[in-house]
Design a protein that fits this description.
- The protein is an all-alpha fold.
- The protein is 70% helix and 0% strand.
- InterPro entries: HTH_67 (IPR054058).
């Protein structure tokens, strides 16, 4: 398996470990208990907490895809309800609780892979990767499953930061990138529009721009050119993620160790398919 393909494969097992923070009942309850109000304040506050009590512009720039007004309904108010330090403690503890519920041997897996994951995170290039850098600088929790979740989170944000850079380079703003992704993947476009906070008019304007570029047709279907661009974006994202994994001497062993945990999350049904992340089901 080449470096780019391995980076892609690692995303399919790292991402499920991370996403319990959005979809598990334990994590939703933890956000509420720490003081965050509603799902979206929990989302922006929890994911953004490594950055500190930043303004909405930082969240808008780093998260990509969300309407600025949606961000501003949650940030900076989130920091008046819960300090980032408290959110950080709550999010890792809740994620570990969810992972233990979903996979009975996750602690053994964590103890096996954490030393290598910590090395990958420490050695990865943070240039231009704001969310990754902020997560990398957090002290890993003493609890092995919390540490596993944090390492997975750092690596998914490393990939995500690279993905945002590619989307931006291709001239795809938040609405445009969501529309093209929906057209190519078959994800319900209305779901993405509503969850990301775009108005009908803004969505239509963005779609018209993609039609003019020949990326979708008048019915909102992806054209061959649109599918090719989306494929190139994913290929470039894989290429940007790959250098972080060059310290891995036995790729199959690392992937194989994480796969059962990822499979447990996916098989739980808590993560929907299709999903707004674009995560595919694990094959086999």
């Amino acid at each position: 398996m080449d470096d780019h393909a391995f980076a892609r494969s690692m995303w399919t097992v790292v991402e499920p470990v991370h996403v319990v923070t959005y979809f598990s009942a334990e994590c939703a309850a933890a956000n509420k208990e720490v003081g965050l109000r509603g799902f979206w304040m929990g989302y922006f506050g929890s994911r953004g907490a490594p950055l500190g009590p930043v303004g909405p512009g930082v969240i808008e720039a780093t998260f990509h895809g969300f309407h600025p007004a949606k961000v501003r309904r949650a940030v900076p108010d989130a920091w008046s309800f819960a300090a980032p330090e408290a959110i950080l403690r709550a999010r890792s503890a809740a994620a570990a609780t969810a992972l233990r519920r979903l996979h009975g041997d996750v602690e053994k897996v964590a103890e096996q892979v954490n030393p290598l994951l910590a090395r990958i995170v420490a050695d990865a290039d943070a240039t231009g990767r704001t969310l990754f850098a902020a997560n990398r600088d957090l002290t890993p929790p003493d609890d092995p499953v919390e540490a596993l979740w944090q390492h997975a989170t750092s690596l998914r944000e490393h990939r995500g930061d690279g993905h945002v850079a590619v989307l931006t380079a291709e001239g795809l703003g938040g609405a445009e990138s969501n529309i093209l992704a929906a057209a190519v993947r078959g994800t319900p476009a209305q779901w993405l529009k509503d969850s990301r906070g775009w108005s009908d008019e803004e969505w239509a304007t963005a779609a018209d721009g993609l039609v003019r570029r020949g990326l979708i047709d008048g019915n909102g279907e992806a054209t061959d050119e649109g599918r090719a661009l989306r494929g190139a974006i994913e290929d470039r994202t894989n290429a940007l993620a790959a250098p972080a994994y060059r310290v891995v001497e036995k790729p199959a062993e690392l992937f194989g160790a994480l796969r059962p945990v990822a499979r447990a999350v996916i098989d739980s049904g808590e993560l929907p398919f299709p999903n707004p992340i674009g995560l595919p089901r694990l094959s086999g």
